[in-house]
Each structure stands twice: as structure tokens, then as C-alpha cells.
Amino acid sequence: MKIGVFGAGAWGTALAYTCAKSGNEVIHWGYNGIFDGLLDLPKPEAVTRTSNMADLSSCEYWLIVTPSAFFRETVRKMRAVFNNQPILICTKGMEGETGQFMSEILNEEIPECKDIGVLSGPQFAREVATGIPTGSTLAGNERVRAGGHIALSSLYLQDCEDIIGTQFCGVGKNAVSLISGFLTIKASGENERALVFTRAWDEIVDIAVKMGAECGTFLGLCGVGDLFLSATSPTSRNFSAGESIARGEQYAGTVEGVFALRGLIKRAEKIGVSTPVLIEMKNKMGL
Question: Which residues participate in catalysis according to the annotation?
């Protein structure tokens, strides 16, 4: 299958390489032709890099892997070359200004796309790119999931139809990972860290269920699996950013947990769900 991958950071690069290793032809798009992810790893021959979105028009399946802060801008440009491809969202995040999920933005910007899916799970980019066993939740309709299994056949994929719940898991674990890193430095002890961690996750599940998500989704790879990986490891950008904030240091790069925490609170306010812990942690971190 011919696959288009939008986004040239570490995660976009890892997925482009994985699609190629799964036996597919890959056209990998980077903004202004800049490819800054995993440059020390050899590029598979099946991956062609481009800065021209039109080159991806002929692809049969699309993956979008841009940071949430640039998601809307990228999708808006993608519409001009859209050709009825299923689109798999691989960005874990919320738009900070609106509190919208990536699928909601995609529906607004490319309303003619009827086959939208979400990939989310415990996935560190470098480990995926180097072939270390990795599992993910693949959410969407049958067409999206069928294409996803071809595109990413080297991953263990757990099928799901709960697109909103799967996105909530990805967004929520970003926010809780940030909080967890902060608490590693600032909490009085492990008991307090576990208390706040659990209450914050409970609030996120409350928001999700109010919006129609299924509780069972939070027990899958996109939920407890991703939460375990990201909220306990300094390898996680969100976790390490939380530590930096606690030390009064500037964190590096785009940290999805910052946008996620702001977006979750805004969404909760709109639908009338109380989130005292999320609000308290946002204020303590000065976000």
C-alpha cells in the first residue's frame, strides 16, 4: 500500500519507518522540507521525503503526526490534496485555545473525510523505529482499521470503535504525566503523589464518560498502558517537563501535556464537570 505520513518529528519519522518495514511504500512530508526526528537512524529505501503535500495526493492511506499546536494549520493545507483517503490521527493532544480534539478539528477542516481513525498507546518513538515490540489501540470504522493493520502490521494493534475515548486517553495521559513529573519533585512523599495522580486520572475519566466515551477504553493500551509508560518514566517528554517546571527550569520543545491540561479544564467547564485537582495542579505549575 502507498502511505502518506504528515509530520517529520521523532514520532512521525518512527511511524514512516514502521510503515516501510511493514512492506509499504511511504511518502513522508516535512514542513519546509525539514526532517528533524531520529536522524541517526538509517532511512528505509521505501521512504521518500518531500516538502510538497501534493506528492501525497496519490497515497491510499494517510497518517497525520504533527504536534497538536500545528494540527489545524496542517490539516487545513491537506484539504487541497485530499483524495478520499482514510486518515489516521497519530497526534495525542488537544487544541489549547479551543479544547477541541484532533478528530473534531479534522471534521471541521476536511468535512468530506468520512473515514477518520486514531492511533494511541504506549509508544516511545525510538523504540518503535528500532523494532522493539510495541502495542497500540487502533480506533475507527472498519475501513480505517483495515488500512491501519496493513500500514502498521509490525505493531500489535488492539481494535476499538471508541474514537473519543481513545483520544481522551492520549490527552489525559499527557496531562497526568506532566503532573506526575512535577509531583516527583514537589510531593511530600509517594503517598501524596499516588493520591493526586489517581484523583487527576479520575477527573479525566469523568469528563470522557460525560462526553460518551466507554470506561473500558481506559483499561486498554491507549489507557492504562500508555499511562503506565508515560507517567512513570523520565524518557517521557511530559514527565521530564513536569520535573523541569518543579525545579523552576525551562522545558525544551513542544510539550503536549501543557496544552492537554489547559484543554481538559476548558472542556470540563463547558460540559459542567468538576476538576478541582486538574485546576489546582495547573495553578501550581503556573500554566
Answer: 173
